Amino acid sequence: MNGAGSALLSEAQGPRDIRYVRTLRISVTDHCNYRCLYCMPEEGMHWLPKAEILTYEEMREVARAALSHGIRDFKLTGGEPLLRHDLTTLVAMLRGLDGCGEISLTTNGHLLAENATRLRTAGVDRVTVSLDTLDPDRFREVTRRGDLARVLDGMAAAEACGLGPVKVNVVVMKSLNLDEVAAIAAHTLDNRRTVRFIEFMPLGRSLLRDADQFVPYDEIRRRIETALGPLEPASHDAGSGPARVFRLSGAAGKIGFIHAMSAPFCSTCNRLRLTPDGQLRSCLFDGGEIDVRPFVRPTLDAAGLHQAFLDCVVLKPDAHQHYGNRQMSQIGG
Fold this sequence. Notes:
Blueprint: H1 3-11, E1 23-27, H2 56-68, E2 73-77, H3 87-95, E3 103-107, H4 116-122, E4 126-130, H5 136-143, H6 148-160, E5 167-172, H7 181-186, E6 194-199, H8 217-228, E7 231-233, E8 244-248, E9 254-258, E10 271-274, E11 279-281, E12 289-291, H9 293-296, H10 302-314, H11 328-331
Parallel strand pairs: 1-2, 1-10, 2-3, 3-4, 4-5, 5-6, 6-9
Antiparallel strand pairs: 7-8, 8-9, 10-11, 11-12
Helix pairs in contact: 2-3, 2-10
């Protein structure tokens, strides 16, 4: 651990052990061009007024403060981050900060093909694409408006310009795609991508919040191993974060599991989140928030930003709640 990271641990005091935070997830917008069943209501959201959303310059200053604490990596999220105008401007700003490590992007892939090369040129290192099914009709059902072929083209374009291997996030839902998990996992046999199966997490007002859609990690893994053979532990690749990573025997790619519900990993969580409206959030589900807008507008208060990170780390819960209090699109997943 570097000196700055040690400083974060020694300065932040709270009722529990304070962990070393490595990643800041920056949600650049709450807007999305999809309406995924598990993410938001079909009618959409009451979107944030433009004046409430942080500017790229303000996000850069929050990132600069993060770097001073030993945080090194940045994940750009949304909503759908590629809906934010000229996102490459922010990427270039982050890349220009001293000490900046990996810059990654999580996207639904709809706009990825036409943006991949520009993102790579600006400084993005890799992308993660949300892809819950390989059936075109089911894909449209889950997203309520998506085009599977367009997403697959975006993934190919990303890998062609050096943003790969693409990571694939699959939210598993009992009645929608549980029957596909083995078939999706099988794609790692001949493809270097990492496919990560994520337990359904009830957040905000999504349609599936109270439905019986949850499938635990053990069941997902059992279905994959029954169809394809035992999974072997594999090394973590860049930015794997909370995923437990495995590989099918002889496979080119990897399989990960994120089991935030059946086996929470709060004690090893290594990230903070910045929402589009400037809330520095300690937990995806229910951690406290620190409003950093007063420290970046109308003028920069570097000391206030410094303290905000210390205060936010202290708020990280020992164990999260069963339901999140914000929509996924408001938090940045």
